[in-house]
Write a structure and sequence with these properties.
With 155 residues, this protein is mainly α. The chain contains five helices and two strands.
């Protein structure tokens, strides 16, 4: 892949995005640190049923049907002061909730925008898209291998 020289304005915008993401990450970590003392209580079966009914059995993140294992996801993230209470939860697929984590709203919006842009670059087959596809595939294979090893270890 050949290197393209960025203009000074592009360099500045690239640095600005990088710095902004770092600031958002630090704010999220500070929120997590401030709220770590609160203990999470287990939801009862009745509370979990009520949470699942809130969305008609759909994941509140992707909208897909929920069957099998699912997470009760905080509406207001715990790191942002959200409580561990049934009225602060919505149902989510395990994968959706794990990828969403406890990102701040602005941070999650940027992640979605970057992801949509990256997907379009992969579809186009651009140099950057193919580099993204290669790295993503490598990372996904490692993640799947870890999950298989965890499942085997847990038996």
């Amino acid at each position: 892949m050949k290197k393209v020289k960025l203009s000074r304005q592009e360099d500045a915008e690239e640095k600005e995005l990088h710095d902004h993401l770092i600031v958002l990450h630090r704010l999220r970590e500070q929120g997590k640190d401030a709220n770590r003392r609160s203990r999470r209580s287990r939801l009862t079966a009745e509370e979990r049923d009520a949470i699942l009914r809130k969305t008609g059995g759909k994941c509140h993140i992707c909208g897909g049907d929920i069957s099998g294992r699912w997470h009760a996801d905080h509406v207001l993230a715990h790191s942002a002061g959200g409580m561990h209470a049934a009225d602060n939860y919505l149902p989510a697929h395990v994968t959706c909730n794990n990828y969403r984590w406890d990102y701040l709203p602005e941070e999650f919006e940027l992640i979605l925008k970057l992801g949509v842009w990256a997907r379009s670059e992969v579809e186009k087959g651009s140099d950057v898209g193919m580099a993204i596809a290669k790295k993503f595939s490598q990372k996904e294979l490692k993640r799947q291998a870890r999950r298989k090893n965890t499942a085997i270890d847990g038996i």
